[in-house]
Each structure stands twice: as C-alpha cells, then as structure tokens.
Amino acid sequence: MEELLFNTSLEVVKCIQEERYDVLEKRRYLEKISKEYIKNVLKDYGGILDDIKKEDYLKYFQYIKINNQDIFMTYLDLIINGERSDLTIICEIKINDCGDVKVVIEDLHIL
Hints:
This protein is α+β, with helices and mostly antiparallel strands. 34% of the residues lie in helices and 34% in strands.
C-alpha cells in the first residue's frame, strides 16, 4: 500500500515539475486547488523544483489512514534547489474495493 501511495504522490509532483497541469486537470486532481494557486505558491517560494529522484523523495514521504477507511492523506516535502524544502504537497488518495485510485491535491503549503 505504501508503495502505491508514494508512487501516486510522486506522479503528482512530476506533473507539477513538468508543468503538465492539463494532466492534473484531466484526472480531476485539481478539485480543491487550481493550477494558478500551485504556480503562485511555487513562484512565491522561489527556487527550482528539481528533477524527480525517487530515492530522495522517499526519505520525506509520510501518510496517514483516515478512520479505518481506504482514504489516505499523503505528505511529501518538495525538493527545491537540490535540498528538502519546507514546502509540502498534501494529497487525499481514496482506493475503492475494485482497486481504483482517486487523487485530489488538498494543498501545497509550508509545514
């Protein structure tokens, strides 16, 4: 389960890093925040969101399960200018009985 949650969260970060907001919109990941919000937070924070290195991101990945349901909140600190930042992306990931995964980006902010 942890691997699925991590890979799904990392996929979201990769789309943001590659500025593929159309993919996030098409998959309905942006139901709670907009691409403009994400762009503004990254611009205000400054620096460059580095290329994805799975092993680096795995060090900073956390998740919690919500109330004995198949709903998880994932927390992933972004790596900016080669270092772990305090800018964290939070996603809600729901997994139904058929194994289908629904992702919604909850927030991107400083933790």
